[in-house]
Amino acid sequence: MIRNVGIISKPQKENIAAVVPRLLEWLRAHKLEIFYDHETAECIAEGNAQGGTRVLREELPAKTDMIILLGGDGTLLAAARMMGSSTVPILPVNLGGLGFLTSVTLEELYPVLDEVLAGNHRISERGMLEAEVLRGGQVIEVQRALNDAVLNKAALARIIDLELSIDGGYVCSYKADGLIVSTPTGSTAYSLAAGGPIVYPVLDAFVITPICPHSLTNRPLVVPDTMRIEIAFHCGDESVFLTIDGQVGIELKEGDRVAIRKAPTKLRVVRPVRKTYFQILRSKLKWGDR
Description:
Layout: E1 4-9, H1 16-29, E2 33-36, H2 38-41, E3 52-54, H3 60-63, E4 66-71, H4 73-82, E5 90-94, H5 109-118, E6 122-126, E7 129-135, E8 138-145, E9 148-153, E10 160-166, E11 169-176, E12 178-182, H6 190-193, E13 205-211, E14 221-224, E15 229-234, E16 240-244, E17 248-252, E18 257-262, E19 267-271, H7 277-285
Parallel strand pairs: 1-2, 1-4, 2-3, 4-5
Antiparallel strand pairs: 6-19, 7-8, 7-18, 9-12, 9-16, 10-11, 10-15, 12-13, 13-14, 15-18, 16-17
């Protein structure tokens, strides 16, 4: 039963001011309690905010039964990391560009909300990964990602020597510009651009894709997400970064190791009943077109 609804908006998105007042009116008319983040509050006039409560974005999962996200794929990636252990579903509405993850259009918003209140919606559970940076045997950083964790170099002229281990066993070494470990959701992002496969998003797997490997025999690898992936590297004096979802960057030092495993909870995404994953592939990526 949906009683409390949260709203997350992309910061400084101009058309939030045109979208949110009508959305608040619709939610109030359906007797729902409304909470919204500060980014949303800053985009609407005080009179239009009646009936809603402004809270910190991090407080929304604990106060709501569902979160409506207004923005693009980047907004959803940031919100997914914020959710922590919460299983509150997110309804992502695309106000950005490609909108592969935020596949609900503004025109579909209210029909989908009707489906949600009637209990006729679908929930897609998306696995996330958890990346640890180990330095001197100690964990110094932990980050979650919905799409991917990427080891890449800062300098353009050098390649990185990378060593991949899975469940404590040596797999192979790469000479490459970097290495991508992606979830199935992230298989259509950076991994796909680097030559990785498209993986159906609810599968329990990781995709390991080298970036520009200096070898014709290095190919992407798909493994169960029950496995623990560990990556060591050698870069000399060059800088290497661990990048999380393309939004969080962590500078690594020689001797650091990165360990990746599945996150303990999944992101729950509200999907329209009549829109399939393959429809999204065709419309967003022109998949199957000649």
